[in-house]
Amino acid sequence: MASTRNSVLQVFDKIPPLLSRFFKKYPPQPLVSYSSKITSTDAPDRNPFLPARHPVTKKLHDPAVSLRRQSDLFKLAREYGLENLLPPLTKRFGLEKFTAKPVMKGVKAPKGAKHERTAKERLEIREAAIANADEIILKAKGKRYRRILERKKLPPKNLF
């Protein structure tokens, strides 16, 4: 027990004063459990990173530690490998910050201009029209044009 306590004290001697002062005021997570929700101002499990509700007036009190200080504490704790000892945070950091956000609709499938969105469909329609051009012209011009098409399909006559 005593050796464990000495090793913990040695670790706390090596960390920066900002972190050691925070852990003196708010003991690390395994020793005290902190709430992850808003609690009353006089609750024993009050989280210093979350706002608290006054039991009589029911008004919200600001968190004991501001977002900027949360950020500083977390960065220091991560540097020394102690971020899991901090109470649950409201602010997100690093990759967690980006993975927690929902992906915007415009990023998943950008809207683009109308001509860009409809280009593929128009190209398909155009190709189908070119493939069926003779039939469409035949309907419009009649039998006379059919004879012209049949002559085009024949091999050309040699004049010599």
Can you put this structure into words, describing what you see?
The chain is mainly alpha-helical and 160 residues long. Helices cover 52% and strands 4% of the residues. The protein is built from nine helices and three strands, in the order H-H-E-E-E-H-H-H-H-H-H-H. It has helices at residues 2-14, 17-25, 67-79, 94-100, 105-108, 114-117, 119-131, 133-141, 143-153; strands at residues 39-40, 52-53, 60-61. Strands 1-2-3 form a three-stranded mixed sheet, with no helix packed on it. Strand 2 and strand 3 form a beta hairpin. Helix 8 (133-141) packs antiparallel against helix 9. The chain is rod-shaped, with a radius of gyration of 37 Å. 9% of the residues are buried.
Set down the secondary structure blueprint:
Layout: H1 2-14, H2 17-25, E1 39-40, E2 52-53, E3 60-61, H3 67-79, H4 94-100, H5 105-108, H6 114-117, H7 119-131, H8 133-141, H9 143-153
Parallel strand pairs: 1-2
Antiparallel strand pairs: 2-3
Quick rundown:
The chain is 52% helix and 4% strand. It is mainly α and 160 residues long. The protein starts with a helix and ends in a 7-residue tail after the last helix.
Biggest sheet, spatial arrangement of strands: 1-2-3
Shape estimate: rod-shaped
Number of beta strands: 3
Helix content: 40-55%
Low-confidence stretches: none
Oligomerization state of this entry?
single chain
Please describe the biggest sheet, giving its number of strands, its sense, and whether it closes into a barrel.
3 strands, mixed
- Determine the structural class based on helices, strands and strand pairing: mainly alpha
Radius of gyration: 37 Å
Mean pLDDT: 85
Strand residues, percent: under 5%
Count of discrete alpha- or pi-helical segments spanning 4 or more residues: 9
- The string of secondary-structure elements, in order, is HHEEEHHHHHHH
Q: What is the CA–CA distance across the termini?
A: 115 Å
